[in-house]
Description:
The chain is of the alpha/beta class. The chain is built from five helices and eight strands. Helix content is about 35%, strand content about 20%. It is globular.
Amino acid sequence: MKAILFNGSLDEEAFRTSRRLTQYFADQFEVLNVEVKQLHLSDFQIPIYNPREKSVPDSVIEFAQAFVDSDIQVWLSPLYHGGMTGVMKNALDWLEITAANQPAYLTNKVIGLTCWSAGNQAMQGIQSMDNIVKALRGWSLPYQIPISNMDLYQDNDLSSFYKSKMKLMAELLVESQKR
C-alpha cells in the first residue's frame, strides 16, 4: 500500500508545524507497513496553472504521478484567509493533467484532511480541501483533524491529544483499503 502526505505549506525547516505534522503521519504509516512519500510544495517548482498552456514541466508530472500512484493520501495545510494555502490550490489545479487517465483524477482515492490555525477556524480549511477532493472524484475520510495552534504543542512536542488523532486517521485510511 502506498500513501502520500501532501504538505500544502512552503515551510522548509524541519521544526515548522507543517513538517512536524507531516513527519508524524509518516511515522504512523511506517508502523503500519505503508510505503510513504512526503510531498512538500517547497520541494517542487510548480508554476501558476494556466489551462491554455500545453507544455507541462517535469516537476508537475512527477508531482501528479505521485497522486495517481498512491492508494491513500493525507492533505495538510495551514489556514490562510478561510481556506487552504494558495500554492496548495494551484498545485491541485495541475491535477487537470490526469483528466484523460482511466480512471480520471483521484477517482476512488481516500483522502484524510488536516488543517491548523491560530484560532478555532481550521474546519474552514478542511471544508475547502473537501470540496476539491470531491471535484477530483476522491473520497474524504469522514474523520478529519482541525487543529488549534493553542493546544497543538506540549513541552515543545506535538501534544498527545493530536498525536492520538493522527494515529487514528492513519489507521482508518489503511483500514479503508481492506474493504
